[in-house]
Fold:
Amino acid sequence: MCGLAGVLCRDPGMAGAQYAPVVERMCRRIAHRGPDDEGIWHDGPVCLGSRRLAIQDLSQAGHMPMLDPSGRWALAYNGELYNAPDLRRELEADGVRFRSTGDTEVVLHALIRWGADALPRFAGILAFAFWDGLERELWLARDQLGVKPLYYLELGSLFLFASEMKALLPEHPDPQVDDAALVEWSLYRNLDFPTRGTLVRGIDAVMPGELVRLARGERRHAFYFRAPEAVDAREFRRVAALPAETVVDEVERALAVIVREQLVSDVPVGTLLSGGLDSSVLTAIAARYRRDLTAFHVSIAGFPEHDERPYAEALCRAEGLAFVPMELDARRFRAALARTVWLSDLPLTHPNSVAYHLIARVVREHGVIVTLAGEGADELFGGYAWAYRRRRRLQRLRPWLQRIPAAVRESLALLLYAEAELPVTSVRFRDLMPPAVLMVDRFQRQEWLARCIEAYGFVGEADDREILGAMLADLGDFLSPLLRRLDRTSMGASVECRVPFLDPRLVARAVNLPLDYKLGRHADKWVLKQVALRHMPKDLVFRKKMGFPLPIWDWARPYARPDFFTGGFLENRLGLARRGLERMVVRAERWVHAFFGLVTLEIWGRLNLMGQPIDQVEAWLASFEPEPARASVS
Structure:
């Protein structure tokens, strides 16, 4: 697990060697992704750089960029390939002789032997830059669901790329906010999908499941994986014909195999255990194969309604696992806020990103380098009742809603808009607002959702098609910022976080489950809960889902001051009117997530576009800290 950076020169008079200092600078900015080793290599027009976090084959045999014996091909690689042993055996049978025991060399030789056909065969989390010195061709690619990141920036004849935006930003001659992207972020809090643009004009992302090829001055994009392509009518019908117990058996076996593979490591392994279903079932299955696991948990101090520590502790007692809790409070949260924003490369989509980074630090302090996390289970198995079960209810209510007289519907709509303090007196506002929202991203999310629903065209029930399609769409849309959160916050502490639920083999199985196995009659995530019952006490399986909420208003309250934004990024660089900002501050408790988004946008802008050092931004935030309460003297 590493970070990578590089430069490709498109001018024949330029050489990659000239830009080795640039690549070194970019690698230093993402040194947290790989503190164990650094490598810079150049050949003709290309220069590749790597920062290594050693997980498998800790020797120098795993040094990157890695070259094949002939020196023609080179690879800078960030990730883990879980089916590497199977692919290694196949390549060895084809005559390949390996010099290392790690997975990097497997990726290198798979690309050499099978070309782009290797990509769909990779079961792992990865992003890479692959250079063919004879053909003078550079490949950039990301894993199927985009767990690992990769960005690029074109500057005339130079093409720069890196694992994180922060490596590219200082090389950008004129970084400016992309106004359209800012509007999209303001509405969706997500710029990781469905387009490759970012919040900074000129910096783009390689998309999940995408291969970008650069040769002879041209850049070509092709997707080797899109989620709708994983839907298979024959497999869906096969599963639908099976007894329910057999389906549960198949899901359990698949998950167990994947967890066992992802426990393979030459460094200590742990789990991120929230106490919820997803992380708990992973921890329980992992304990079957490794008794030396440590489970790490975030406990919310002073807010028992948000705290799942009792459930996490109960599971660890039952499994005999080491349990390391971290207590998170308001001051600790605010003290880590600026660094978490800096790591994220975007204003925070989720306030709990701060908790993820702090627990990753604790993981590293305890000598653990690899963890397992439960991301993806909700999207695959129907865990968002507010999205999926509510959608089903609304679909059933829609015919009844149509019977309400138009004048009554119009009045209700106006009341809702007025309650939200929207300009209901504007001409045709109630008609213009919904389409305007959809236009913000040029209808891309609507297009994506339609494609995902069409993938289930063979399903008889229209309601089922809609909900299955929405779940599939969330594997691209809703999941993307969660994966950003996980990657940046964990790698920011030099910790690799693996996501067993998002192994492409399990994804292919889950998207072909009939809806009843997800939104069961009596429980969401029905099939996963049946698997969990085989490994966990029933009272830990069937309890109300909490997610990972934080008391964000209580913790962000010190920033709700009229002078917080004065003279800063929002006011001076984005041109937001002072009175409007002050009005938002007055209403901060009501619009707490919008307010918190503006707070982190201000922090992001100061760090990235105003050039303020992180210690300066931290000191500025600390100036808003309330005075500690003094003990009373009797």
